[in-house]
Amino acid sequence: MSAGDTEALMGYDDVLAAYDPALGLEVHVELGTNTKMFCGCATTFGAEPNTQVCPVCLGLPGALPVVNAIGVESAIRIGLALNCEIATWSRFARKNYFYPDMPKNFQTSQYDEPIAFGGHLDVDLEDGTVFRVEIERAHMEEDTGKSLHVGGATGRIHGATHSLVDYNRAGIPLIEIVTKPIVGAGERAPDVARAYVATLRDLLKALGVSDVKMEQGSMRCDVNLSLSPKGSGVLGTRTETKNVNSLRSVERAVRYEMCRHGAILGSGGSILQETRHWHEDTGITTSGREKSDAEDYRYFPEPDLVPIAPARDWVEELRATLPEPPAQRRKRLQAAYSYSDLEMRDVLNAGLLDLIEETVTAGGSPAAARKWWSGEVARRANAEGQDVPSYAAGLGVGPAQVVELETLVTSGRLNDAMARQAWEGVLDGEGSPTAVADARGLQLNQDSGALETAVDAVIAANPEVAEKIRDGKVQAVGALIGQVMKEMRGQGDAAAARALILSRLGQA
């Protein structure tokens, strides 16, 4: 079946009425080490093909692997953060399969003796519900190379004229995190899948073990799904949708497979146990290869590597390095900053929490930090297709500039409109907020006499509005403030103007 073909789908509500979904999520995470898992080759993303390879990661005869100590340390820290047990003894195995992107014809991985096992991760759904996902294992392995399909429209093998292989990625340290079957989610199954991957991504980022850039493949998810008759409690035949590379796609892939399985089962058919390919552009899956058994690989112990036996005191030392859990941190900062749920959601969706925390630590107020980072700079970053932190870093703009801008406002030098002009100048590379304000002549007129004159003139010119305010409709004062600011050519103090208008009209 090609990516353009579609299969029959059952309505989502009909699926839920007849079947119970079960999920299994396998998340592969590339560790942010400087060298590969078993050799000294660099791991720089985007290097020219086949420039970061050596006899070890190419599997040439006589080359012997050596375990990356940072990779082992990262694996232990990940296991601890997932509330796993850390094995006193584990070892690597050779996972035999024969793909062009695996130069050794086997992948060095862990099989029945993983370094971490038996954990859990609590995830917060959007409605505040907490769903616990049980972790089966987290094990170490190496990444494979990457097939480059040439000549097709999608970059996949379908329609390609030929394929090339880049082995730069072969040997990069991977942690594979495997859940136990996730049951009981019902209609929330797609939401649970997305929330789990999002929570896991945030946790791994906080640990500092990976950049977790799903769009670059440094974090990718395989989605296993099955349906069973409602209330039967028996797991159905599963499919495995490979390499889903965004949170949105994880959710969409679960929903699509539920509806596809439902249509097949509802018509009396049976599910083929197979791998499936996710197509981001069309939002569908297509058949990959049949898997006759749940585990259809051949493993045997890796003879060239010694077992991993981490000392208990070392494990406890690593436990002490764990950061505050991201969900706990978010709740703490939301309370400290007095953000509403909606405000916090917008901050998180924009990836601004770290910047805001740094700004508050530098002396800014939570309100000002949120205002300035989520305004013009966010608009410009979105236009450039970048996240705000990366865009701001590229400009050399950080918390110090926001704090300085806020100080110019609170000191009375700038009003809000002037501050926006100054901030635009900062983003345009004109210098610090103070330097921009000086260069552009931005300065509030502190002449109280001039303000009084402008207020009196505006009140006299708008008797109907003035009368409404005298009658207690103080919300109408905004119309007069705007005219006062116009009279003062934008250099008046809006707060002072409001106070003076209300005083003049007997509402002070």
The amount of beta strand, in percent, is: 15-25%
Tally of strands: 14
Low-confidence runs of at least 5 consecutive residues: none
**How would the global form be characterised?**
elongated
User: Which class best fits the helix and strand makeup?
Assistant: alpha+beta
The domain count comes to 3
Q: What share of the residues lie within helices?
A: 25-40%
DSSP helical segment count = 18
How many strands, which pairing sense, and closed or not: the largest β-sheet? 9 strands, mixed
Q: Return the average pLDDT rounded to an integer.
A: 90
* Rg over alpha carbons: 29 Å
Strand order of the largest sheet: 2-5-6-9-1-10-11-12-13
Distance between the termini: 75 Å
Structural write-up:
The protein is of the alpha+beta class. The chain has 3 domains: 12-316, no CATH class; 326-440, no CATH class; 448-504, Arc Repressor Mutant, subunit A, CATH 1.10.10. 39% of the residues lie in helices and 19% in strands. The strands form 3 sheets. A 9-stranded mixed sheet has the order 2-5-6-9-1-10-11-12-13. It has a 3-stranded antiparallel sheet with strand order 4-3-14, with no helix packed on it. Strand 12 (274-279) and strand 13 form a beta hairpin. Helix 10 packs across helix 11 (388-395), helix 13 crosses helix 14 and helix 17 (477-487) packs across helix 18.
